[in-house]
Every structure is written in C-alpha cells, then in structure tokens.
Amino acid sequence: MKGLLLILLIGITYSHAGQMYKYKDVNGNWVFSDKPPEKKQSFETLEYKQDKKPTTRVKLYYVKNTEGFTLHAENTFFMPIEIGFISPITQKSIRKVIPARDSLALFHSNKKTAKVSYRWVLGDPASIAENYQYHAPFSSPKGHRITQAFNGKFSHTNEYNKYAVDIAMNVGTYLTAVRAGTVVWVKDDYHMSGTTRYFLDKANVIKVLHDDGTFSSYAHILMDTALVKEGDKVALGDKLARSGSSGFSTGPHLHFSIIKNSGLKNIAIPFKFLDNKGVAFTPKRAMIMVGSSKP
Q: M23ase beta-sheet core domain: from which residue to which, for each copy (predicted)?
C-alpha cells in the first residue's frame, strides 16, 4: 500500500500592516504613496493588514511501495521547472524537468535516505527563445523615461538582471502584458522599499509564461493591486497590476525583463520593444517610452 511518508518543505505564515495615501496630483491623476501629499489638499488613507500563507511551490516526498521507497517531486507551478540534486544513492548530479502541475519520480531506494538538497528554477532548458518584439509594458499614453537599460551599472550587473529595463513611472500606473501567455507567478504582498540587502527578495512581481518557454517579469508592483492570478490566460495588452516601488528600489518604477532557463539557471535575455508605429528598437537609457493601447 502506498503512502506519503515525508514532506521535505513547509510553508510559513507572515503578515504585513501599514498605511497608504491616495490623492490627486496637479494634473488630476491619482497618486498612491506611503507619504501624504506635500501641499494641503484632501486625501484618502488606505489601511491594510494582510495575512498570507504561501503554498510550497516544489514539494519532495517519499512514497513507500513493496520494493522500498521512491522520492517524488511535485511541481505546483503553471509552467515546467527544472530540478537538480545529488543522488544519495549514486552520488551523481541529476537534473530533471517536471511538467507544469505534475509530479515525477526522482530515484528509488531500498530504504529512506537522508534529506536531499536540491535546486530548482522556472522553465525548461530545452526551450528556444523566439525573436519576438514586445509592446510597451504599460498602457499610459504619457511618456516614461528609461532610467536603466541593458548592462546598467547600478543593479543590472548579474545574469538575471543584465538585460532588464527600468522605466520610471508614477505609483499606480497600469502595467500591461507585452505578449500573450499564462500567469505563473503573482506576488503583491509587500509595501516597503529600500536599497539595503534586506529588500533584495521583497519586490512584488508578476511573471507571464510565453509560448516559446520564456517569461516576462514585471517587478516592484504596488501592493495588493494584482488583477490576475496564477493560471490565468492573458492576451497582449491585458492589465496585470499597478506600478509601485516595492522591494529593492530607489523610487517608483517598473523593472521589466524577459527570462529563460539556461540550464538550472534563470537568465535575462536581450529583446526589442515596438513603438506605437510598429518600429522595433533596443531600449536605451534616457529614452522616453509611450504606453501602448490594448489591440
């Protein structure tokens, strides 16, 4: 008789609380901020207290059978993942791809082994990125300046951020899908920002998987503004969330990138945007981008 004997990962519970201010600027646009307006004017306060219990994304567990024990891995994402580990039986490095929302047997043993150390990343390393040209990741017709582009010296210096683009925009600007796909990651539970190491993993992010196996990443979104959930299908131009300044950030902006699995490692890849006339361009620092309307 089969039975689940050991869960190797557990979830944790945490909460965040604070206050946001909502008011209109001199142009009549709504502003969302953690600071009240500098000038005397009417404003609303938005109180929030959020308790969330994140689910474990990758679960490892043993199944007992008549021949011993089999270690399985379950992928709860709406996209494939690659998992890598050292087999406690052969001491060899093993990598396997687990399909979306599926499980896979990793290895069999006559007896239950010690806890297995492993790594996993989003995506299938066998996927090949298409030469796709992307629409602007926001719908605002206002011009927004690119403050950091490819190989930016401030924070675009590692493989995951090398080909990212930072676009300055007011808090609350609608972010839109640059390409059709499936929403595979939604995090919008954090409200603060800063430039110390503490904030490196705190940014709110939405990720959308595309047909070629790459995924677009929209980071620093405003807390509790996600308009989509994991598993949703989105079309080009669909609204995803509102922009903010959560996590490692010096001010309100969108950190946008196209990511792929290069072999147990997610990396950013170079890409081009399309302007409103359909002309492709490589994003450069100080360029002004205008938002695209939904097709």
A: 162-262
